[in-house]
Structure formats: structure tokens, C-alpha cells
Design a protein that fits this description.
InterPro entries: FAR, FAR_NAD-bd, NAD(P)-bd_dom_sf. With 184 residues, the chain is α/β, with parallel strands linked by helices. It has one domain. A hairpin with a 5-residue loop joins strand 8 and strand 9. The chain is globular, with a radius of gyration of 19 Å. The chain contains six helices and ten strands, in the order αβββββαββαβββααα. Helix content is 41%, strand content 17%. Strands 1-6 form a two-stranded parallel sheet. A two-stranded parallel ribbon has the order 2-5.
């Protein structure tokens, strides 16, 4: 509805809409692993592909979309920013990455005791999800083409999820970032 309202009242202003998927910890900029929250419950099939995108890639996509469409004042472009098309990762892989990380790097609490890290609560039906909640109270090819046509260097801003090595990202960026910035 917000997008329709913008379109209706835009007059001669260009509109660029960015629709990111699940935004996760930064990949590289301004530093690896930055995040301010964590998820402890998921409604998911373990074979499900998670469409994740690091926060800095979303920001870089926004910048590139503005530059690519700067000379088209009457444009209305919608870009979907995600990873599932170019570099899919399944939930069970993420689960394996988390266990691998904490096997090699046990988490120690402020008293020096190891914290036993359990599995995610995987809720595979809406009924289980509602019960749990009650108890607890890609960037499309169009943008790449527009960037090439505008003469912009595609390597200036990293917004290609294909460049993400998911295992490396979870083991060396995401999990350490959660421990530094969220768990503290």
C-alpha cells in the first residue's frame, strides 16, 4: 500500500524501491559481523532455502540503484535484494555451521563457565509456532545491466550474494558478530 501511495503522489519524481529479504549481519562494511539482534525461534522446514542478505549488501544495492537510475527522472524501479537465486543456503546448512563453530569455539559466560549451546527450536507447523509464541508471549539482473549501461564499475560496491561463502560467513562473520555485538 505504501508503494502504491508513493506511485500515486510521485508527480515527476523518480521512485526506486528496494525490497530486501531477511537482512543479516554485515558481510564486510563497515566491519564484519555487525548486528543488533538474534533469532531464537524459527518456523521452518530444515530443507528450506533461507533468503538472507547481509546488511551492507542491502546498503550497497541502494546506492547502486540510485546511481544506475540517476538519469531517468520519471523512472519507477523495484529491486528485490536477496541471495536465494544466486547463492542459496538451506536451513540445515546454517544449523551445521552453528554447531561446527561452537564445537571449535566453546562459548564461555562471564563467570568462566562453558555455555551449552543447544539447537534452534525448529517449529515445522504454524500450530507449533503459535503454541511457542503463546508460551513465550536478488538483486535482479536489471540492476547489473543498468550499472553496466551507466558506465559504473560493478566492483565499486559489493552487492553480489554469489560472492558469499556461506560456511565462512557463518563461522567467521555472523556467529562471532552475534557474540560481540548482541550477546556481549
Amino acid at each position: 500500500m505504501g508503494e502504491m501511495l508513493l506511485d500515486h503522489h510521485k508527480d515527476n519524481l523518480p521512485i526506486i524501491i528496494i525490497r530486501p529479504t531477511m537482512i543479516t549481519s554485515t558481510y564486510k562494511e563497515p566491519f564484519s559481523g555487525w548486528n543488533e539482534r538474534k533469532i531464537d525461534c524459527l518456523l521452518v522446514n530444515s530443507q528450506t532455502i533461507f533468503d538472507l542478505i547481509p546488511a551492507d549488501m542491502v546498503v550497497n544495492s541502494m546506492i547502486m540503484a540510485m546511481v544506475a537510475n540517476a538519469n531517468n527522472p520519471s523512472s519507477q524501479m523495484i529491486y528485490h535484494v536477496g541471495s536465494s537465486l544466486r547463492n542459496p543456503v538451506q536451513f540445515f546448512q546454517i544449523h551445521e555451521f552453528v554447531f561446527h563453530y561452537f564445537t571449535k569455539n566453546p562459548y564461555i559466560d562471564k563467570y568462566g563457565n562453558p555455555v551449552i549451546v543447544g539447537k534452534f527450536k525448529v517449529l515445522d507447523s504454524p500450530a507449533k509456532f503459535h503454541k511457542y509464541m503463546a508460551v513465550r508471549s536478488v538483486l535482479p539482473l536489471k540492476l547489473r545491466r543498468a550499472m553496466r549501461e551507466s558506465g559504473m564499475e560493478l566492483d565499486s560496491f559489493n552487492f553480489d550474494p554469489k560472492s558469499i561463502d556461506w560456511e565462512d560467513y557463518f563461522l567467521n562473520v555472523r556467529i562471532p558478530g552475534l557474540l560481540i555485538y548482541v550477546v556481549k
